[in-house]
């Protein structure tokens, strides 16, 4: 947009606009900027939005910003890839780093490990290096040059493991990822779907292992349980024991689950992500804020 403002480039003859990971762009508060870019088009255009999840906020944006939009679903929007074997394991917080080495033995490399916090990514990376694992790490606190080097080393298979925040859950394409390890459960089910979608691509199968414990939000675990049930994956005893009054939501067709975030384990009236968004909106009235309430790279 900076190039457009400075008139270094223009969109006078542009006919197509493609927005990848549209849900995250709206999540991060860039809706106004996207609409500003729309205003630079001089002629009729075709706009395409791509997203693995299709929560209510994206549907509303598409209806208001596009002309008679057509929705094309490959399966249910927000559903997990059926080519991914999902394994959920209960691991105590203090035992996770030790169990990580055992978990890496499940498949040959390359392996992608996700963690919520930048400091935790650095700790995991350092631990793996001490244990002789060929690993690299990326997060928003690293220099662009360091991130590009790490991604290149991992893509070219010179490193076996990439440790990352959710910065690597979207927009980066890695070939033949064998195994995804969620060192911790994301704060919302959308990020979980994006994370495990890094494997099982192009008709190949992959494994996604997720560590959970009592520190996880119960609302997210309910969504995870429902997602596993929908994909006909094994539901571990810890999740089975969660009192789910909403188990029947999985089989209610297009109107099932939460209309805001797409989670299957709750309705919109109980959506923690919507509640957090509303609280954030109330607290930021009068100032522009581009940080998402669910931003996981911190």
Question: What are the defining features of this structure?
Answer:
two-stranded parallel sheet; alpha/beta; 8 strands; six-stranded parallel sheet; 298 residues; Znf_CCHC_sf; 13% strand; metal-binding; Rossmann fold; 2 domains; 11 helices; zinc; disordered C terminus
Secondary structure layout:
Layout: H1 2-5, E1 16-20, H2 22-27, H3 31-38, E2 46-50, H4 56-65, E3 84-90, H5 96-103, E4 111-114, H6 118-130, E5 135-138, H7 144-155, E6 161-164, E7 179-182, H8 189-196, E8 206-212, H9 218-230, H10 237-240, H11 272-283
Parallel strand pairs: 1-2, 3-8, 4-6, 4-7, 5-6, 7-8
Structure, described:
- The structure is a single chain.
- With 298 residues, the protein is an alpha/beta fold.
- It folds into two domains: 2-72, P-loop containing nucleotide triphosphate hydrolases (Rossmann fold, 3-Layer(aba) Sandwich); 84-240, P-loop containing nucleotide triphosphate hydrolases (Rossmann fold, 3-Layer(aba) Sandwich), CATH 3.40.50.300.
- It has eleven helices and eight strands.
- It has helices at 2-5, 22-27, 31-38, 56-65, 96-103, 118-130, 144-155, 189-196, 218-230, 237-240, 272-283; strands spanning 16-20, 46-50, 84-90, 111-114, 135-138, 161-164, 179-182, 206-212.
- The strands form two sheets. Strands 3-8-7-4-6-5 form a six-stranded parallel β-sheet, sandwiched between helices. A two-stranded parallel ribbon has the order 1-2.
- The radius of gyration is 20 Å and the shape is globular.
- The model is unreliable at 249-255 and 285-296 (pLDDT under 50).
